[in-house]
């Protein structure tokens, strides 16, 4: 499945600052014959469609970590600020965040991994996940130079609320957890649910203004190989001959 969170600024009519992100859990757990083609299809899609950032969830980390290292080398913009290789390493295995200025708006995306995501990892003995709720130094540094901050990751509503308490200055949390099924607000922080089963494109549009951060709308487009392909993603699915997930 593909989740595209689109950040829009209502304040500008001449140009619309936009970010495209995926919060993770897009891969299939590595236990069936279609796991590899599904994963390759989606990683190619994110690269070809010039996504800005992709997070890693439980499903991705059930695959060998070298899978995502190679994906990153091939142009997939993976963010994981609190995932480390080696128990003592202080440098994240992937880029921790993305910072861009578009249309005069300074936007930042931080990728975080829940600690439970390593429970099913074949590399759990060599990887370390630092608590996502104890990244204050990084988050404050990002906040100083940003007008808008998004966290992306595989977070349950309870974990999202804890993140909102830890970082109340964040604007939005984009979650791919199956437990996150609707948009929720924790104080001034909006948590957007981008999950579900099957092949979907979740287009989450939100104004990039702190004073109007609750103005979020979600549109779900079902991507079905049985109907004529009319989008790039549908065409890729049709060519892959992969069955839609139920």
Write down the overall geometry. globular
Look at the helices and sheets and give the structural class.
alpha/beta
SSE series = EEHEHHEEEEHEHEEEEEH
What CATH architecture do you see?
4-Layer Sandwich
Outline the low-pLDDT stretches.
Answer: 1-14, 210-230
Tell me the span between the first and last alpha carbons: 11 Å
What's the number of domains? 1
* CATH level 1 class label: Alpha Beta
Count of helical stretches:
6
Q: Examine the coordinates and then state which fold CATH places here, giving the name of the CATH topology.
A: Purple Acid Phosphatase, chain A, domain 2
Describe this structure in words.
With 246 residues, the protein is α/β, with parallel strands linked by helices. It has six helices and 13 strands. It is globular. The N and C termini lie close together (11 Å).
């Amino acid at each position: 499945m593909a989740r595209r969170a689109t950040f829009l600024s209502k304040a500008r009519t001449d140009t619309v600052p936009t970010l495209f992100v995926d919060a993770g859990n897009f891969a299939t757990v590595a236990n069936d014959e279609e796991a590899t083609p599904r994963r390759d299809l989606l990683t190619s899609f994110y690269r070809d469609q010039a996504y800005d950032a992709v997070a890693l969830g439980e499903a991705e980390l059930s695959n060998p970590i070298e899978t995502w290292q190679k994906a990153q080398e091939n142009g997939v913009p993976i963010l994981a600020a609190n995932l480390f290789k080696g128990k003592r390493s202080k440098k994240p295995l992937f880029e921790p965040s993305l910072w861009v200025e578009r249309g005069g708006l300074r936007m930042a995306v931080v990728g975080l991994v829940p600690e439970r995501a390593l429970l099913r990892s074949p590399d759990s003995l060599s990887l370390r996940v630092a608590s996502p709720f104890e990244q204050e130094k990084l988050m404050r540094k990002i906040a100083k130079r940003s007008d808008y901050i998004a966290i992306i990751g595989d977070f349950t509503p309870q974990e999202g609320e804890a993140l909102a308490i830890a970082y109340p200055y964040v604007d939005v949390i984009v979650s791919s957890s199956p437990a996150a099924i609707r948009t929720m607000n924790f104080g001034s922080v909006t948590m957007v649910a981008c999950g579900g089963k099957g092949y979907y494109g979740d287009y989450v549009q939100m104004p990039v203004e702190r004073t109007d951060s609750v103005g979020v709308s979600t549109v779900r487009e079902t991507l079905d190989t049985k109907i004529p392909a009319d989008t790039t993603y549908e065409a890729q699915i049709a060519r892959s001959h992969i069955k839609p997930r139920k």
